[in-house]
């Protein structure tokens, strides 16, 4: 429950605010930034929520904005924080970018949305597709008045009735993101696969869908034996359209999909993954004059796959200058704003291996030598037609009253997660143990 | 128009002209400009009548803007709001449900005395509207009305109507009805003098329960949160019912919305309490783990909320997540507040099997740039050493590696941690003392210095040049901070008791300086006590100063068991992330002794109640305080008072008790002696002597506390159960 929600700029000035309850005066918004600064000054962490004089401040950051909710009660903070994130995503879908400028330009519609998304401090509708049906950017013609879509209050609150397509099609994207942490000795410390099944649904009417995966638990509970590999998903999350009790009972994924694009489910596997793209850097640092890198990159997946748009970010000291690069493939750029250089390889074939060398100058005088950041090497990539986990869509059954035929299309892709990083060894000790 | 007294020119005048324009577009544009001015904080309340004229329109967007304006300024222009009533009432009859809902929603927000009485009729109609969208809006409007004028809700029978609406055919209406009833319930029960059979109290009955369980699977994510909240309050009758609820709620773990997951966890944690079937409990805990881990892939703020809650859950069920430590490893780009919580949880999950992985991670963190994080990582190494005996040596080696880096703050933090390890494993790692002493010159923080001095004093007999080392500190005695002074004093006395021949002069000098030139009463008092002891009975001095210290251990809980249960019933709320009971932060005064007592703690007398209150609050404030004692909590339900007294609590009661003391618990004890202590009730102390060892082990204000079987030093002293000679001497001192 929130009494008030405001979007603030970096200085803490409210750009737009909406009061839902009377118990917290709007003047408390202006106290937020000073409180944050006080906390920072006292060397304390600024946590997403804190309490002062009986008022609770709950906030999130989104680029250069704060989204702040205030409350006087012992509110459900998980609900409020997640609501604030939802507000960001709804506004982003409406205006592409959510920033000071777009808020100022669209205040009317933001007020409308805030009115619709929350009532008396309780979140209501946060599905942006449904909201877009009755809160639109063009003002309505006077003759035709919009009405609340049935969906807002239906049991099926995510789909309107009467959708028609000439060609009924479904596209499934199975996307797996690999998060991985390799320590300086070359051991994988932590790895996980975050998978997502995204759908683009162009189906008429109210279709009933059933999705079959090579889910090990399902095979076990139904007593069927699988041909080929079955995977064990550790945790599965579903879009609200999926019937959870059904899944709990017999692992059937059955649902009436929303129209258009949405994420049907996500899953997590913590089976150990070996690094698909292995990078190691030998660093030779001559304090006060230069620093040299030799980076090796190896594609550790099958020859028939190819990784696209590989980007390897190797951190360098903040004050490195005059870069010189030599790479056996791809291109290398210095990104001083990120204190790293980026090695880009458009296409990296499976089981291939490449080398690159970098040379930087270092200033002869150094301010403070112990404040040396040791950021890890990070890698971005995309491997199409391939999933690390081995997940497979066995079938997608589509049943609709009118009995049309619809074809599902499935595509697989594996990519880096938000944390695919390889730690570098401490400089000067000429990096890893593997001979180069 | 007589009431328009505004200026004849300027922005507002222009706006007012446009608002009264004959062209529709111009009027609408003017309204937008008014709202724009309102948004940037300009006062446009003077335009109230002009804006009001534009209320009757077919343009929905314009209507919404006017309503928005009314919501903002109704309070400042109460006598004018009445003019809007007609339109509102008309709108609540509009053929378009969107308009009807909008009207009823806005009317509830106007919060002007005058208009309230006009709300009843339209609300009555809207509650029975055909359209569920209108009904769900009307349901919340009842809660709004209750907030403003409870009598009105009661008189019009709106409460009964809400109760009927729990059986509505539409799950969203059910959800909002539950939200409204719960909201009303919360505001009634927050009143201190509410009667238990106030009609506004929302009791979840068995018939409601079944309706809620059905609606749960069908309503939107936010509706589920509301319904799960009500399910958590249901008083179950028997075990079967509890199992039934748990089984129906568990599928919600698969929901993508983290607040639904946490709300489901809350319901399970509450109803699990009455379930005795071990296999079922194990199954629930097993199913709870994966969704909690998945929450760690959310945005950082959500992660933080999840981590704070996981921390609580682990205090209750240490078997939850026992194989999942690696998922808590910090990511390089995690915000600091997330990293700190992860560290805490990692130490909680540390075991023989994963300690190597943990140590290598912690060592990695200790070489990062953020000083705060580095320090906390080093602390975590120390906590691991204390938690897992078999890994202590590996921890010490890591610490030695870190000390070898000679980075000032790393060395200092490692020194503090080392002292704790020496306390836990006495006489095990003496070999490294020379290495520690070699870093003496690098120390400039009081806590690090005090730690090293404590180590020197403790092992004085085995350090050849202990007297030289301590001499250095005695030379600069008056310039040091009080904690360092206290430690120096104690260390020198220890040295004297161990090697009297080499330190006779030293001890004379320090007792002189401390009693004469020192401006801290704590230091002076301690010096006097030592002086008296040494001069009257050296044997007693030995018994006191060199007494065996009780062992330290890592506690499983940071809050008292009763508070933990309370917080587990609040999973997902602010209380659960602050680790404090709601009364401490929602404004109606801070937690007092009696409010804690009301929570059904088994308290024998008021003194204990106060102690418990102090401890509860203090423990809550020191939520990062992992090193705490648990033996006491296990052995009996006696409150562990010292935890409360070593930390400087912020409650008024505590402030009285500890008035004017520094971070030295010795003084806390003394002040207890001076206070109610002497007349305190005897509470069967077992080892008062251990408590009164003036070895100064507690003198760091460090998170480690000793584990005295009885904490209330005060009552201990007045009831000499185990009469021992040195203790008698001590009593003589007072």
From TrEMBL, chain A:
Q: Which UniProt keywords apply?
A: Cytoplasmic vesicle, Membrane, Protein transport, Transport
Q: Kindly give the CDD domains that the UniProt entry links to this protein.
A: AP-1_Mu1_Cterm (cd09250), AP1_Mu_N (cd14835)
Q: Which InterPro entries match?
A: Adaptor_comp_med_subunit, AP2_Mu_C_sf, AP_mu_sigma_su, Clathrin_mu, Clathrin_mu_CS, Longin-like_dom_sf, MHD
Coiled-coil region list: none
Intracellular or extracellular location(s): Cytoplasmic vesicle, Clathrin-coated vesicle membrane
Please give an example of a GO cellular component term from this record.
Answer: clathrin-coated vesicle membrane
Q: Is Protease found in the keyword set?
A: no
Extract the PANTHER family matched here. Answer: AP COMPLEX SUBUNIT MU (PTHR10529)
What the record says about family reads: Belongs to the adaptor complexes medium subunit family.
What is the protein named?
Answer: Clathrin adaptor mu subunit
What is the scientific name of the source organism? Neolentinus lepideus HHB14362 ss-1
UniProtKB/TrEMBL annotation, chain B:
Where is the protein situated, by its record's location annotation?
A: Endomembrane system
Is Cell membrane among this UniProt entry's keywords? no
> What are the UniProt keywords, alphabetically?
Membrane, Protein transport, Transport
MF (Gene Ontology): clathrin binding
Gene3D superfamilies attached to this UniProt entry: Leucine-rich Repeat Variant (1.25.10.10)
Which superkingdom heads the taxonomic lineage of this protein's source?
Eukaryota
According to the UniProt entry, the coiled-coil residues are none
Segments forming domain Clathrin/coatomer adaptor adaptin-like N-terminal: 9-537
Q: Which family does it belong to?
A: Belongs to the adaptor complexes large subunit family.
- What protein name applies here? AP complex subunit beta
Biological source species:
Neolentinus lepideus HHB14362 ss-1
């Amino acid at each position: 429950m929130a009494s008030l929600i405001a979007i603030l700029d970096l200085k803490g000035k409210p750009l737009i605010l909406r009061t839902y309850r009377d118990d917290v005066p709007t003047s408390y918004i202006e106290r937020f930034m000073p409180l944050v600064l006080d906390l920072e000054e006292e060397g304390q962490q600024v946590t997403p929520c804190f309490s002062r004089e009986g008022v609770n401040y709950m906030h999130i950051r989104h680029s250069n904005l704060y989204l702040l909710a205030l409350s006087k009660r012992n509110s459900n903070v998980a609900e409020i924080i997640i609501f604030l994130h939802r507000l960001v995503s709804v506004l982003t879908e409406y205006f592409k970018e959510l920033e000071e400028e777009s808020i100022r330009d669209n205040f009317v519609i933001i007020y409308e949305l805030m009115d619709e998304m929350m009532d008396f401090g309780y979140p209501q509708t946060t599905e942006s597709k449904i909201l877009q049906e009755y809160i639109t950017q063009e003002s309505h013609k006077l003759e035709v008045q919009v009405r609340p879509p049935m969906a807002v209050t239906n049991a099926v609150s995510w789909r309107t009735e009467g959708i028609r397509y000439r060609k009924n099609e479904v596209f499934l994207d199975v996307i797996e993101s690999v998060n991985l942490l390799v320590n300086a000795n070359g051991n994988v410390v932590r790895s996980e696969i975050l998978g997502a099944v995204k759908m683009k649904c162009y189906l008429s009417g109210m279709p009933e869908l059933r999705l079959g995966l090579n889910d090990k638990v399902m095979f076990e509970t139904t007593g069927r034996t699988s041909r080929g590999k079955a995977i064990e998903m550790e945790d599965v999350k579903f879009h609200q359209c999926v019937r959870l009790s059904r899944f709990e009972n017999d692992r059937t994924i059955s649902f009436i999909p929303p129209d258009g694009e949405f994420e049907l489910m996500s899953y997590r596997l913590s089976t150990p993954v070996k690094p698909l793209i292995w990078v190691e850097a030998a660093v030779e640092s001559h304090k006060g004059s230069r620093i040299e890198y030799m980076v090796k990159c190896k594609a550790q997946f099958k020859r028939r796959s190819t990784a696209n748009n590989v980007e390897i970010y190797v951190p360098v000291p903040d004050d490195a200058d005059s870069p010189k690069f030599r790479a056996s493939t791809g291109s290398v750029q210095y990104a001083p704003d990120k204190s790293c250089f980026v090695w880009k390889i458009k296409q990296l074939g499976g089981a291939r291996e490449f080398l690159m060398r970098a040379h930087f100058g270092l200033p002869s005088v150094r301010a403070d030598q112990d404040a040396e950041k040791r950021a890890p090497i990070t890698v971005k990539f995309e491997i199409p037609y391939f999933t690390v986990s081995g997940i497979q869509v066995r079938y997608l059954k589509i049943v609709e009253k009118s009995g049309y035929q619809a074809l599902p299309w499935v595509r697989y892709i594996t990519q880096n997660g938000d944390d695919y990083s390889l730690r570098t060894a401490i400089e000067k000790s000429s990096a890893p143990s593997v001979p180069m | 128009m007589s009431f328009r007294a505004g200026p004849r020119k300027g922005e507002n005048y222009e706006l007012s002209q446009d608002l009264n324009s004959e062209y529709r577009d111009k009027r609408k544009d003017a309204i937008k400009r008014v709202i724009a001015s309102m948004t940037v904080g300009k006062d446009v309340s003077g335009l109230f009548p002009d804006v009001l004229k534009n209320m009757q329109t077919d343009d929905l967007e314009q209507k919404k803007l006017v309503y928005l304006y009314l919501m903002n300024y109704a309070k400042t222009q109460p006598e004018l709001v009445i003019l809007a009533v007609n339109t509102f009432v008309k709108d609540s009859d509009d053929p378009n449900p969107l308009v009807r809902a909008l009207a009823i929603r806005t009317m509830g927000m106007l919060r002007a005395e005058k208009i309230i009485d006009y709300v009843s009729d339209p609300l009555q109609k809207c509650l029975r509207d055909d359209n569920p969208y209108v009904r769900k809006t009307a349901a919340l409007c009842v809660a709004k009305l209750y907030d403003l004028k409870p009598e009105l809700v009661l008189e019009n029978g709106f409460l009964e109507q809400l109760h009927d609406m729990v059986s509505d055919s539409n799950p969203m209406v059910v959800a909002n009805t539950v939200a409204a009833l719960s909201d009303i319930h919360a505001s009634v029960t927050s009143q201190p003098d509410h009667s238990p059979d106030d009609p506004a109290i929302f009791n979840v009955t068995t018939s409601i329960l079944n309706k809620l369980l059905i609606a749960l699977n069908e309503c939107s994510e936010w509706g589920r949160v509301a319904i799960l909240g009500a399910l958590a309050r249901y008083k179950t009758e028997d075990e079967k019912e509890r199992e039934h609820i748990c089984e129906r709620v568990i599928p919600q773990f698969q929901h993508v919305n983290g607040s639904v997951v946490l709300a489901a966890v809350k319901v399970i944690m509450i109803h699990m309490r009455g379930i005795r079937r071990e296999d079922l409990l194990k199954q629930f805990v097993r199913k709870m783990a994966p969704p909690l881990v998945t929450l760690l892939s959310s945005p950082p703020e959500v992660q933080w909320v999840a981590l704070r809650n996981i921390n609580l859950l682990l205090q209750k069920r240490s078997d939850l997540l026992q194989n999942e430590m690696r998922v808590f490893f910090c990511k390089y780009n995690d915000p600091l507040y997330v990293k700190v919580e992860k560290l805490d949880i990692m130490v909680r999950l540390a075991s023989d099997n994963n300690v190597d992985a943990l140590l290598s991670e912690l060592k990695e963190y200790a070489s990062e740039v953020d000083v705060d994080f580095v320090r906390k990582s080093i602390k975590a190494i120390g906590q691991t050493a204390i938690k897992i005996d078999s890994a202590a040596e590996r921890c010490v080696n890591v610490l030695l590696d870190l000390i070898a880096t000679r980075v000032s703050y790393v060395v200092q933090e490692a020194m503090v941690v080392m002292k704790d390890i020496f306390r836990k494993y006495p006489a095990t790692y003496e070999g490294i003392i020379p290495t520690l002493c070699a870093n003496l010159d690098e120390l400039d923080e009081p806590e690090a210095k005090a730690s090293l001095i404590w180590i020197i004093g403790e092992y004085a007999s085995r350090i050849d040049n202990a007297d030289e080392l301590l001499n250095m500190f005695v030379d600069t005695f008056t310039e040091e901070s009080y904690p360092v002074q206290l430690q120096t004093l104690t260390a020198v006395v220890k040295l004297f008791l161990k090697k009297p021949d080499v330190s006779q002069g030293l001890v004379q000098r320090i007792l002189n300086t401390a009693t004469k030139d020192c401006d801290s009463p704590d230091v002076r008092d301690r010096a006097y006590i030592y002086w008296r002891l040494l001069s009257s009975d050296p044997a007693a001095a030995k018994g006191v100063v060199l007494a065996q210290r009780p062992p330290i251990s890592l506690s499983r809980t940071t809050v008292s068991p009763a508070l933990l249960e309370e917080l587990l019933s609040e999973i997902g709320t602010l209380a659960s992330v602050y680790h404090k009971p709601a009364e401490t932060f929602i404004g109606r005064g801070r937690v007092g002794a009696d409010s804690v007592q009301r929570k059904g703690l088994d308290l024998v007398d008021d003194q204990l109640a106060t102690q418990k209150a102090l401890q509860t609050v203090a423990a809550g404030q020191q939520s990062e305080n992992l090193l705490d004692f648990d033996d006491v909590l296990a052995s009996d339900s006696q409150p562990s008072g010292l935890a409360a007294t070593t930390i400087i609590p912020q409650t008024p009661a505590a402030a009285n008790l500890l008035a004017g003391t520094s971070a030295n618990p010795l003084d806390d004890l003394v002040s207890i002696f001076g206070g109610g202590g002497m007349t305190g009730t005897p509470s069967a102390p077992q080892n008062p002597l251990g408590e009164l060892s003036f070895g100064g082990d507690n003198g760091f204000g460090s998170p480690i506390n000793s584990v005295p079987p009885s904490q209330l030093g005060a009552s201990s002293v007045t009831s000499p159960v185990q009469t021992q000679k040195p203790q008698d001497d001590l009593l003589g001192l007072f």
